[in-house]
Amino acid sequence: MPLVIKRLRDPDTNPCLSESDASTRCMDENNYNREQCSSYFLKYKNCRRFWNSIMVERRQNGVKPVMPTATERAEILGAMGTMPY
Known about the structure:
The structure is a single chain. Helices cover 64% and strands 0% of the residues. It has 85 residues and is mainly alpha-helical. The N and C termini lie far apart (30 Å). The protein has one domain (15-80). Helix 2 packs antiparallel against helix 3 (38-60). It is globular, with a radius of gyration of 14 Å.
């Protein structure tokens, strides 16, 4: 598997892997009719926006790595109580 694809499929580097898979699955099931999958696309977009804001905040505070690992993300989401996206 190419390195780029491995990185996109890695849960430590891609926080929105489940949302991405759900939107792809929806497209497959609905013969690539984008209108029927718009809610999945919106959820993925909101996920990317949320984690991007976390990355910007961590970068400004000098925290490394800028993208939290999967375990750190689980702790962040657990502390929030509900999914922010």
